[in-house]
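Q: Given only this backbone (119 positions), what sequence would you predict?
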């Protein structure tokens, strides 16, 4: 059963699923724990950028050597290095989600101090 057939072209499926799955979780982490995440923003973004870029580069290599490919009918069509922009987004958003979660699960003494609540 295709629940999107009447209103969403196929090429948007991957992007819509990616955003509907990732963004609410990332937003909930920020809504509930911004006092912990904000002081640790630089390492979160640095780790997300480094890992996301690494994953994109490995995907570019895999596509180049024919390990796998992407169905052009199921993507938006913008594919830097032969990898769809949605896949780039997946790697960077996944890295962001993991980095944020890692900071939240770290013992308090291993992360930067949380912002204190106003009295």
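A: Predicted residues:
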């Amino acid at each position: 059963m295709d629940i999107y057939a009447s209103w969403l072209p196929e090429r948007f499926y991957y992007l819509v699923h990616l955003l509907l799955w990732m963004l609410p979780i990332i937003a909930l982490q920020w809504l509930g724990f911004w006092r912990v995440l904000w002081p640790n923003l630089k390492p979160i973004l640095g780790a997300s950028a480094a890992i996301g870029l690494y994953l994109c580069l490995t995907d570019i290599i895999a596509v180049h050597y024919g390990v796998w490919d992407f169905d052009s009918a199921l993507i938006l069509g913008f594919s830097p290095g032969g990898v769809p922009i949605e896949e780039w987004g997946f790697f960077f958003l996944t890295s962001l989600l993991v980095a944020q979660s890692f900071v939240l699960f770290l013992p308090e003494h291993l992360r930067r101090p949380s912002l204190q609540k106003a009295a």
